[in-house]
Amino acid sequence: MPEVISRLRRMQPDEAYVQAAQRVVLDCLAVKPGERLLIVYQQRAPFEELAAALMMAADEVGAEIDAVTVTSDETSPRLMAKLKERCDKAAASAMLAGYEFSRDIRRVVATPEGERRHVHMLGLTDAVVRQSLRIDYRDVHALGERLRARLQPTSEIRVESAAGTSLTVRGDASARWINAGGLQHGPGWTNLPAGELVTTPSAVDGVFVPDGGLRLSDGAMLDRAVLRRMQLTFMGGRLTQIEGPEAQVQQLEAHLDSGAEGRRVGQIIFGTNVGVIAPIGVACQDGKLPGLHLVLSYTAPEVTGARWCGELLVQLLGRQSTVRIDGVTVMDKGRYVADL
Questions:
Q1: What's the CA gap between 300 and 263, in Å, rounded?
Q2: Cα-atom radius of gyration of the chain, to the nearest Å?
Q3: Cis bond before residue 279 (omega within 30° of 0)
Q4: Other CB atoms within 10 A of residue 254 CB
Q5: 289-323 pLDDT, tens per residue?
Q6: Which long-range contacts does 243-246 make (Cβ < 8 Å, 24+ apart)?
Q7: Which of 295, 269, 30, 319 has the alpha carbon at shortest distance from 144?
């Protein structure tokens, strides 16, 4: 809308936001002169400032700009129809909003038709913009590709950490490794910040200490001080035992037993965003922390090719891990080795 674009043009975003926006527009979406970029955003911090920075970056490229701001509870049929019309005219799009934002609106914008390229930025904070969104996503993508080249369909992955993790993971020959490195140069969509190499495993055995974080399906997080004293034992890809403070163990068990396949490992994830150096308690960033992480129940079957999917999504994050693929060290205490 003209008034929305005019408002964004009057803003003077912080330099860190400008740098992040340039990464999104130039690297992630590869917006070209004359293409139309649609920005859909929630009118509050940090989304509005980043939307203004995205507009600046698109202006520098010579792109056409369309911008829409909507509230989290706006879902009228007229709005949805208008929004789809704007999406259909765009070559590329970006959405910036909180997790509470209308699922209907999110679905319309994040379902590209035709050749549209889309980046989905949900739950961003100022810290996320300044850290993981400013990384060079060409490097993130390249790291994921090098790591994927080391992996065979049934590679054995060994994970150890000083916190007590001692885990053996084996890939599923029928599943795909997906490099979500942040580059969306063809039709489709990706989440930002990016930096994940993902598949669904055939077997997970041993002990995992989620000292990087544990997030339940509703977004609730267990206290990290508690998590350092929690050990999760897996056998054949299923969580068989939880040890730790009684109250937190009961909370986790009740949640896992509330949905089908709640105790089954749905995904293994290599975090590949080297701009993330420590967990900060923000879901959209912490899962990209370099290391090997687990997701219980949800398999993302549309991308991994998994033949099953549970009803929950529980993130288990590790940190400062040492990881070996088929006996070759690819990560040493949370840092990828030099040849990666």
A1: 16
A2: 20
A3: no
A4: 10
A5: 999 999 999 999 999 999 999 999 999 999 999 99
A6: none
A7: 269
